[in-house]
Amino acid sequence: MSEATRSVIAPRPENLSGRTVVMSGGSRGIGLAIALELAKRGANIVLLSKTDTPHATLEGTIHTAVEQINAAGGQGLAVVGDVRVDADVQRVVDTAVETFGGIDIVINNASAINLAPTDKLDMKRYDLMADINVRGTFLLSKTALPHLRASQHGHILTLSPPLNLDPKWAGAHLGYTMAKYGMSLTTLGLAEELRGDGIGVNSLWPATLIDTAAIRNLPGGMEMIKGARSAQIVADAALSILASDPASVSGNFFTDEQVLAAGGLNDFSAYAIDPEHELEEDIFLS
Hints:
With 286 residues, the protein is α/β, with parallel strands linked by helices.
């Protein structure tokens, strides 16, 4: 967080009751954890995701996510589509407005990852990351803007890292770094552009590795998650941001630890997958 940003985190969970959230992705992992926390507070959650049918190795579809959202106390709605496709993004926005009367919160959760070095990165993979991460974040935020301006509680939250020009990160995986920093630049620009509209625009990033099915399925993944925390820590941090006054919280690149510490929590041991194992710091954090 820079000194120039407004960052008064004062969550009032009652602010989320009846609010309508549009999220890209969200069928599993961190996105689903955030959706469930919002559902517990009575929010409407409209998901845009391609996961219409079960994956061979990853648990969960957009439909099972909606079932969990409904069971948690929210109202879930599945819109099967692709954040890279203009018509699909317009359709999820229109569906949310037609069903629930407006949009209060946009969560840019969908993201593609490939950590290959430049000469090993296939351009189809590069295009996938650029289209989902950067273009998808820009497009969903842009398309929802008229409705966020009409809301009394307008927030855009993007799951992307702090902007860090240490060459380490560009040199480690240039294609992925550019894609994630493109998401973060959207936060930087929209926070300034929308400052007069009272819309809170922030990014959130985990301070440590997070236990997800995608990581568990990697070679050596089961060993990696011993140094991880559960997705619940990111969900709790997202809840704190989104339940705060958007006019008072904007332009920040938060880590989950920063948000929770601002609320008085300094012991994060309950989130650890293996409390006896040293935590693994997430990438993009020096």
